[in-house]
Amino acid sequence: MELVKEGSLSVLTKEQLQGSMNKKFRHNVTDEMINFINATEGDEFRSVYKENLIGFADVIQNGRYKMADYINAVKFVSYKLIGDSNTIAYAKTFPDRYQRLVDKNTPAKTISSFSTAYNKGDLVHKILERTLVPVHIINMDVHQEAINTQADLMRNAKSETVRQKAAECLIMQLKAPEAAKIEVDVSYSNSSIDELRETTRALAQQQLKMIQSGAVTAEHIAHSDIIARKKGDIETEYEDVSNEKS
After folding, report:
1. What is the pLDDT of residues 84-130, one digit of tens each?
2. Cα–Cα distance between 26 and 121 in angstroms, integer?
3. Are 21 and 70 contacting, i.e. CB atoms less than 8 angstroms apart?
4. What per-residue confidence (pLDDT) applies to 118?
């Protein structure tokens, strides 16, 4: 097997792979793994493999997968991305496993079922999800062509109905994005409001009793400073501190 030259752009360093991962997973990257990756034949494919290993590293952040399984799954997906079928990608990813099946005269259909099953595995599936490009991005050129067609119909169609519909279509497609709405959730505690209401009621009742008993006048109450002291979970007594200030 031809080894890659030191300094080649397709060489993956331990620091590069570790840098793409959460700190708690970096210790799982070993020199043996890096050597295995860099020993992959084909400089161009190795570049793709390297980029995918770094780009899809978030797949294993939840800790459910082994690092070795991740390396193999990315290799399998990388082969598929360059056009290989499931079986060919499987054979290239697991050459020893594939050769054992061939040596046992395993039917091609059976080997194909193994590769299909691997392709449907959870880890491969999650990596493949990262490779999917949204339809609107893939078809950007078609979308623009459709807009150009509608614009041409709006200007040049003989039918007024066609021109009107083309104009309506363009209005919908080319309208400016709506401004983001900022919603402020203002809430309050019912218990706090109820407590304040109860406190105010208790104060008013105590002041009324003081006036009725002749202890104070209404004028004195109006100009007094009141502090409240808790006597228990429910009862509160209030004290006139006006005289203390003078």
Report:
1. 999 999 999 999 999 999 999 999 999 999 999 999 999 999 888 88
2. 24
3. no
4. 94
Q: Would the pTM of this model clear 0.85, i.e. be above it? A: no
Residue type, 197: R
Which tops the pLDDT comparison, 9 or 70? 70
Nearest Cα to Cα of residue 227 among 241, 210, 206, 244? 241
Yes or no: say if 53 and 74 are a contact pair by the CB < 8 Å rule.
yes
Q: Is the pLDDT of residue 60 over 70?
A: yes
| Cβ–Cβ under 8 Å, residues 169 and 146 | no
Q: Give the integer Cα–Cα distance in Å for 114 and 125.
A: 15
State the Cα–Cα distance between residues 132 and 142, nearest whole angstrom. Answer: 18
